[in-house]
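User: Structure please.
Assistant: Input sequence and predicted structure:
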Amino acid sequence: MSDDLLFKKLNFKSRRGMKETTFIVKKFIDGFSSMNKQQKDELWLLLELNDQELFDLIFKKKDQFAERFPHLKNFAN
């Protein structure tokens, strides 16, 4: 899949039901152009999570986030 197509799909998937998760996911999307393949793959997996799982990983279970998405942790700041 080309980066342009992947970006469009990820951008569409970044529209979340919770404003907190939408805000965080948009930060990941903003860094898309500087991501390598591993980071883009992890971002895809991250966006497959439902809002509550995503919220919990980012705000409550930061250690688990770093374990599951080690290549994205720099974008979570």
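The longest helix spans residues 19-30.
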